[in-house]
Amino acid sequence: MDRELLEKVKRHDVSFHEIDKILDANASIELRRTAISQLTGTQFKHISNYSIDVEVVAKRNIENMIGAIQVPLGVAGPLRINGEYARGDYYIPLATTEGALVASADRGCSVITASGGSNVRIFKDEMTRAPVFKTKDIIGTKYLVDWVNVNFERLKIKAQETTRFGELLSINAYTAGRNVFIRFAYDTKDAMGMNMVTIATDAAVDLILLENDVELVALSGNMCSDKKPAAINAILGRGKTVSADVFIGKDIILEKLKTTPEKMADVNYRKNLIGSARAGSIGFNAHAANIAAAMFIACGQDAAHVVEASNAITTMELMDDGLYCSVTLPSLNVGTVGGGTRIATQQECLNMLGVAGAGEPPGTNARKLAEIIAAAVLAGEINLIGALAARHLARAHAALGR
């Protein structure tokens, strides 16, 4: 190790990111880790152990790398799915530190599979970016909105010059005084697509600025809305809008969940619907974020998009001989190329599901992953509502030592 460089880093004469210009990836990581160890008095016995390719990760996924965090990975299933893209039995990878979560998902999977599987359909597939512009007054605001509507095809050509696969689907303008938010929506195929749509929108913005007397305030104006709770995503959708459902017979509910359809419907109504409404929640579900987060981490998705995944609405309706259950996720942002999907450990989980890399035709793998996640979320919802109806929740956590 370069001891002189180490001392310079500790004195902040050389910044953490400058080390990469001097040393190769592995040496840079080791030197940064040693510096942090000495500066904080922490012994790093575990974060230095990993099998991922640091040359790839350090270039594309992280800056100032000092090691890797390990998250326990469990599996639930088989989960039978009757989707347009996902058809068959799947084993669900779940990376989590929450005890009882994998067991919960596993029991929900068994209920769905015993019931013939979950139907899943995608209703919308659009990734958005919404820059905010400032005009001189509301006359200028109206002019800009009209110009954007008239020039959609020109903006589409400009945006698509930046991408091989992305396609601009629509543009919608929202105003507040002299503030204009223009929400661009794209089909990003197998990519989750945030980088793609940001670059494409930036190119379209150049045309807007060239032909309009307006000021770009920010390329993202929060009408997208990215990684934040937002009603617009719950209403209009963002990423994949996907629904999963299943009919569960009363005998299966009694055998596997130890409760009745009537009790589960009542819990869902009073907890997920009334309780969520009373709390002012955007999502009306039991714990959709739990399953989404565990699958996101396992499959290399951007974990911050769990915020949007939690917009889910869970319904349970009594039928003559059982219970109809569904979950709708209006804004599920996932992809199978780019980002964390390149990391070897996450690629193995994607391979488990048969969705690693680009699909043929493009877009099919990302949609397949979305269908699998939706079905897994439904499994989690069914199990938790069943556990609450049977008053098993606290007992399960206590039994598993949590």
Give a short overview.
By secondary structure, the chain is α+β, with helices and mostly antiparallel strands. It has 15 helices and 10 strands. The two termini are 43 Å apart.
Tell me the helix content. Answer: 40-55%
Coarse shape: globular
The CATH architecture name of the largest domain reads Alpha-Beta Complex
CATH class label of the largest domain: Alpha Beta
Polypeptide structure, described:
By secondary structure, the chain is an alpha+beta fold. The protein has three domains: 17-70; 74-124 and 240-399, 3-hydroxy-3-methylglutaryl-coenzyme A Reductase, Chain A, domain 2; 131-218, Hydroxymethylglutaryl-CoA reductase, class I/II, NAD/NADP-binding domain (Alpha-Beta Plaits), CATH 3.30.70.420. It has helices at 3-10, 25-40, 54-60, 101-114, 138-150, 152-160, 194-211, 231-236, 250-257, 261-279, 288-298, 306-309, 344-352, 364-390, 393-399, and strands at residues 73-83, 87-95, 118-129, 132-134, 167-176, 179-187, 215-218, 239-249, 313-319, 322-332. The protein is globular, with a radius of gyration of 24 Å.
Layout of helices and strands:
Blueprint: H1 3-10, H2 25-40, H3 54-60, E1 73-83, E2 87-95, H4 101-114, E3 118-129, E4 132-134, H5 138-150, H6 152-160, E5 167-176, E6 179-187, H7 194-211, E7 215-218, H8 231-236, E8 239-249, H9 250-257, H10 261-279, H11 288-298, H12 306-309, E9 313-319, E10 322-332, H13 344-352, H14 364-390, H15 393-399
Parallel strand pairs: 1-3
Antiparallel strand pairs: 1-2, 3-6, 3-8, 4-6, 4-7, 5-6, 8-10, 9-10
Helix pairs in contact: 1-2, 4-9, 4-14, 6-7, 10-14, 11-14
